Amino acid sequence: MTFIFRCTVASILLVLSLHIDSASASSRFGPRLFSRGLMGIEPVKNANSRERPIQNVHHVTTWGLSKSRLSRILLGEVARRSLTAIRGGDADSAHVNTDKKNSSSSSSSSSQTKERQFTSKKKDNDDERYSRQMYALGARAHGLVRSTTAILDGPMGKIIKSSISQNGEHGFRSLHPGQQNGKDIPSGLLYEMAKNLALSGVGRIILVRNDDGFDAQYFDGTLDDLGAAYHRAALAEVFPESEKRAMNERDEDEMEVEDEDFSDEMDDEKEDGAVLLAEYIQRLNPGVQVDVLTRAKILELLRGENQDDEDWDDENTVSLGSNPVMVCIDRSVASMLEVNDACRFRCQTDSQSVPFVSVKTAGVYSQLFCDFGPSFVVVDEDGETPRSTLIDNIEIDDENNQIVTVNCLDGERHDVSSGDLIEFQGESGPDEASSGGSFPRCEVVAVKSPACFTVKVQKQDESKEESLLNTLSDGRTRSFARVKVTRTISFSSLREILQPDSHTDDDSKAPECWDNDALFAPSDLDKSFDPQRRKAIMASMAALDKFVTKYGRLPNRSSKELPVDGKDESVKAKRSDVERFQSLVRKVSNTESSASLDKIVTQFASTCRAKFIPLQAIAGAVGAQEVLKAATGLYNPVRQFLLFDCDEVLESCDANSKYSDLDDYRELVAKGQTYILGNELSQKLASSRIFLVGAGAIGCELLKNLASMGAGTSKQGCLIVTDMDTIEKSNLSRQLLFRDIDVGEFKSAAAKASVLRFSNCNVEAHTSRVGDEEDGPFDDDFWSTGCDVVLNALDNVEARLFVDSQCVSNGRGLIDAGTLGPKGNVQVVVPHLSESYGSSSDPPEPDIPVCTLKNFPYDISHTIQWARDLFDGYFNRRPRQANDHVAEIAQMEDLTDFAHMLIRKFGEDAAVDMSEELGEDLGVFPFAVGLDSNDPEYIASVKMASLKWAISHADRLFYTTIVELLKKHPADSLDEDGAPFWTGSRRVPSPLKFTALNAGEDEVSAQQVMINESIAQFVQFAARLRMESFLASDQSEEESSHTLVSLEDALSSLEKHASVTQDKKEQDADKERDVLAAILEKLNGAKTGASFLPKLNLVDFEKDDETNGHVSFVTAASNLRAMAYGIPTADAMETRRVAGRIVPAMITTTGLVSALSCLELIKMLKGLPLVLHRNAFVNLALPFFAFTCPLPADQVSEINGKTFTMWDRIVVKGSNKAPADTMTLKKFIDKVKKQAQLGDDMEISNISYGPYMIYANFLNSEDEELLGSPLMDTVKSAVISEEDSAETGLDEGVEEAGCTKLDDNLTEEQKAVLSKLSRKRYLDFSVAVELTETGEEYELPPIRFIREKIDPK
């Protein structure tokens, strides 16, 4: 293809592109993201010569463009679209903003400001993507997050020109850490914050470009491992290899022109890492708009400068939006003061200041600061839903009727404190229940006990006071709940704290603020309340600024050589940097040196040049959460400093032998980590085999952190990850390794492909379940030799307990992490030292009693669970039941025998119910004779029958059943003890029935209107799901749309039903009922339909699909039952959470617990003592951080003065003379005695393998035949005889499974058991011993019988 022809094709493509939607087309201008303007296209200017972004593709012209440039733009788009098809990348995920309302074009015509805008092509589906986060934040707060503008000011790094133009098979994935220049590396903390905020769904992120002067000296990217890893990952994703190859296939003459143009562009953009970060954010979340502005422009906007200009309100003027939050990351104090002052500028005009957050790390120390203004309103301090507590009785004070004593129901405990505001809730008629009743709010004045407290009724008008007191005393008040109230907090600015007397740079009075406990939020109960530690860290942070100002660089660890500017040489210095730094700290803090202070200062000076990945991830998580608090008013913010460090990891580090010069580990992945902790730890991490169980939210964060830390990068090392789940849209708001195109893929496979962008580590990805399975990669060999340490990222206790048992059994370390909304925990299990995960357990969640669900609900969770069970019964259990019996019913001439079988198997009542269900489910088919299931007439018939069925069940569930219950237990009935039956948790229900609006002369109440609407919704979705059980599941989308039942259809059918139906007459209770005849009547009705052998479709509850009607059905059914029992109803969102058992989740909490897990992994690999390990319990909402030392392993036995713990094993092996598989039971007993060092006064009492007893001395001590049998044969006999002793016929002396043919009498299950047993590398036996004189028994540690044969020497 010639150059002229290519340009012709390009011109045709340009003309065709004019017909594309402007918002979409404006994004499609090729893969080059680093050129001037819009790929050289000059912006269209208005009459005032103000630059405007391209708003419509029709504005694009070819004027001023070279042919090669136009061809490059359009042909680049072809490559981009091809790449999308090949790799699944979102070619249109980032492009120039085309929305005028959200435009952030510079108000200046100068091209030097270089503002950039990136936004998504279309609005993202918030409800699905952020569903788990919405349950933690709530709809109100989530909406505010989506309207938030987060302004991030931090070291952006640079674009590596040589790397962009490099060619190679793997593109940027082949970029070795040694090829990265330290000045090119961005702040890892900046990327971490941007990642957390983007995944949280902030509406807009503005990146601030300014790394000149002092701030550039304050940050050293050479030792920022996380920044380097993110940099590699971003380059690999923004410039994938497929696109590079497509670009390299162009003709040589065009490439010469293109390279020239591109070089010019890179001259302008080579120091702009903000554009790369913007592109990376767009790939993390296409729904986030990203802009790039200079700090000067940001300061101008924060101060509101130029607002008096006549064109300030122009639609294209830069704006920070209605909900901005300013964030400084890894910036100096001088920069923080300047930006914080600008945020406070608006306070001078009585306007609300812009919330300000700063976060930085230095080595193993971090600092967070928040200033949300002088009057920040906290809407909800903890985010917890107030618990409704049942009331036994209420006593009104005789002397002061405003004082009321509340006694909780027996077994209930309140959650109120003095000063809290509570609101009473009560049981009343449907009219009052719908409006919330008229129950007063009261203030708690005294707490007498966990079940009793006193409140003061708020004053009311005299006309209302008597009514309110009657409401409290007449028994209608049944429960209460805390009422959340807003709280206003006053923050001080950074300058007011550091320089309270002036606006100068004099910080001589800074130590005064360091002693103010009110300014520091505790982050560690052991460290935060140590004033010396606080003073040392704050002084070190201040001295760091002084050091950089004086020397123009960050301090080195111990060198006494200073670099000479412009020369590759250095000069000897009188003092080391650490000594200089200590001098500055003493000057700043105005204190004399002390041992404790000097130790912290020395550690700070020795590590502050580098960045530590776990600490960066911790700071990024907490910092991002504070941004969300500032934007929403949800949760309690940090006031105002939060200091967190992990200097315990420095213990046992030898500065004289373990640290090398930077040049010695230039090629390492984790340079900063090696600088802080030494070569030995980095090499150990690189060679470790780390098993990650789960690749979800926590698993992704762990993989990112570990890859960035250099884990698994040596030949021996590996990251092993397994997860059976596939990626869903709701995962994307927390799992940074996945993209929209990955939805439906296995998590482990997608995570492996993505994490390789961070480093060239070895990764094994599996989709196998971790459990006691027969086959799979995780066998005995894997647990004993295939992994060194295990990190749990699981979501269920059963799997956690299994992994824990394997780790204890094989002496492997375990770190377990979990989250629940803003709360998280980390537990570390140190081999041979600490207790295990299974040593303690949380109390199980109480089950809802069946009687409560069936007849006496008093909480909305009860009605939701009832509706969820109803869904499973109607649309899963019943169709399966019909499919199981349809053939049997169709083949029988007489169904009497079948009816008798039902009665014998299930009982009379259950048999009647089952026959009625079969009659309903199979008896609807006679009308389908001769009709095709896709025929419109058939569909209409199914729809009519389904509506009739739904109406009859609505009447039965919400009217007939309740009427029958009230007949049995009237509202004024008494129980056996003479007390009122309907009291305590029992609520008197009210029958609900659809009433046509024109049914009578009386007016229909508002409550009845709500009941009608809810019944209509129930009928609508019940009929729709019923239809889908009968219609062919392989119908096309067009035909399946007929399965939808509209609300109008339901209302119309209900009105017709109400007009022709009268209440059924009561059956005579004394009349004997012929059960068999009733069953046969129903079954005969089912026989006709069963003769067509229909197969009904089963429906599994799917909570995340809003179009399938599942949640809508459960919501309607639950709310109807709640109305009947006077329980406040719930919306679809809350119903989905309870019915779907959804666990609220947030990326911030996930990032925090993952970082803490990696921190504990470092300690474990270093072999630190148990007292330096920490279990973590955190709540970012409060915020609350509790770190406790793991408990030591409990002693399980003591024999002959020797103690044993759960980690101990007594190992028994075979020998050349007595191989393991032929070792007799007697020989095994002798070896156990020898290995356990048992004396003559002790003998083996019994031996068990799991639940199977294989030896007991009181039965088998003289059984020579058993004692002479091979141990393995004895075990197999015990297992098989336990499985089925009557049917196995297993011969004595059965040989090893797999070597001989199994007995034909064995069942398949028994064969599987033997096969599994034969593959085990070792067996663990439980052995008890007893003292021969006293008969006292002791339990030995598990006896591990190794089956491997010993090779001859």
From TrEMBL:
Pathway linked to the protein: Protein modification; protein ubiquitination
Entry keywords, A to Z: ATP-binding, Ligase, Nucleotide-binding, Signal, Ubl conjugation pathway
Residue stretches of biased makeup (Basic and acidic residues): 90-102, 113-129
First and last residue of the signal peptide: 1-25
MF-aspect GO terms: ATP binding; ligase activity
Residue stretches spanning the membrane: none
Active site per UniProt: 851 (glycyl thioester intermediate)
Pfam family for this entry, one: E1_UFD
Region called Disordered, residue ranges: 90-129, 244-266
Sequence ranges assigned to domain Ubiquitin-activating enzyme E1 C-terminal in this UniProt record: 1173-1296
Record field: compositional bias (Acidic residues): 250-266
Family to which this protein belongs: Belongs to the ubiquitin-activating E1 family.
Protein name, entry field: Ubiquitin-activating enzyme E1 C-terminal domain-containing protein
Provenance organism: Cyclotella atomus
